[in-house]
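Ticket #4471: complex job returned nothing on first submit. Input attached below:
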Amino acid sequence: MKTLASDFFERDARIVAKELLGKYLVRSIGRKKVAARITETEAYLGPYDLASHARHGKTARTAVMFGPPGVWYVYFTYGMHYMLNIVARREGIPSAVLIRGVEGIVGPGRLTKKLAIDKTLNMKAAVPASGLWIEDRGEIVPKRKIITGPRVGVDYAGEWAKKPYRYRIGSF
DNA sequence: TAAGTGATCTCT
DNA sequence: GAGATCACTTAA
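Support reply: We reran it on our side without changes. The output follows.
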């Protein structure tokens, strides 16, 4: 078991998204520690990806995506939900992976609610000291178990909405 | 199927 | 400052 370091995230978001499957999202609050196996992710590639928040350039909210990899990007939407993303690619390239679901919890909004994730984690590094990080527990997910599909809720993105940048563990 | 909820962004 | 939009959830 090892904690994923920034070099893991300093790659193409599609690779990071795929390899994140089967890893464990670990949350510690005070003395409590909870680990959940990641089962669903989505990749957001860069400024040219019209489904990405970074499509309109750097703003106060998206600035974190332009920063170094291995940092959480947490934002609030629909008036009630926090979304959890981790920044990918090297500094200067706005890219991230959305963690949509873990074992037992399906839906990005539910996931953050269940694990008490909110904007205080935004822009924090994914290391144990921040209270939220990712561990590799040695599980290897076979390729045939990984299902890809179009991303969710991004119909406005035209062609980019159809790209199969969503990954999840399942079986056919 | 639709409404709730509020931060953020794009105009004035 | 106003208005539109939004990487969703829940109840019906």
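Chain A has one domain: 2-169. Closing as resolved unless it happens again.
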